What does this fold into?
Amino acid sequence: MTTVHTLDVPGARLRYEVRGSGPLLLVMGSPMDAAAFAPLADALADDHTVVTHDPRGISGSTLDDPAQESTPQVRADDVAALLDALGAPDADVFGSSGGAVTGLALAERHPGRVRTLVAHEPPLLELHPEAEAQRAATDDIVATFHEHGVGAAWTKFMVTAGFDLGGEDDGAQGPQQQPSERDLANSARFFAHELRHTTRYLPDVAALRAGGAGVVVGVGAGSRGLSTYPTSLALARLLDTAPVEFPGDHGGFLARPSEFAETLRKALAGQGRQPGR
It folds into this structure.
């Protein structure tokens, strides 16, 4: 059974879902909402209490000021507030893409609240081998959104990230055939108020180590051509740890939730499989 809750936090009201029983596991994305993680959460709910949420300003989580910027730090404070509301001193955390960046900020800003963080393909473009070009491409995507709208921005985003728009992917965040009003609003918030902050975040390795969280860096088996692959490997090198290979590409949890959940369980237990290099 899944229960739906709301929580007032400074400047926003968060919508979150709780399902399952067992050790607490927070599953998050950004800008992806709770609905995107429902199949994965269902696959984990037999042996975990799984909490998913809509990041502030996304889907069911409303903002007092719609123009507020979405930074990893603000999103991390929201997650800490969720832990407080759950009466949980700490939890394991799985974050994918921007949610992985949120998880890193949470572990840095709130020492002791994260037991193990599995950071799946964080788009830390400042760690990319071509960081300057990636920064310029991000600025161009944001400009494209403001000049030509959501569809054009998503197309440029997907090409820049390395997806083959002519082939099939594993359901990574991207444009839809007929986006709903909510999809359009979420996308607009992502491009106008989130993308730059997330991709330009630089993790504080010393703070991560001091905070006591174990950090596992996840990469998709099919992600080698994506911009998040080298950023994930760079983070793993900074943390002096081996990355763990997950099924699929950047959105593997969407297409293969059961298989992905089993790999996540192993990663949390320290048994993840290292990708071949």
Observations:
- Residues 95 and 203 are 14 Å apart (CA to CA).
- Residues 181-199 form the longest helix (19 residues).
- The domain at 2-130+202-268 is CATH 3.40.50.1820 (Rossmann fold).
- Residues 168-176 have pLDDT under 50 and may be disordered.
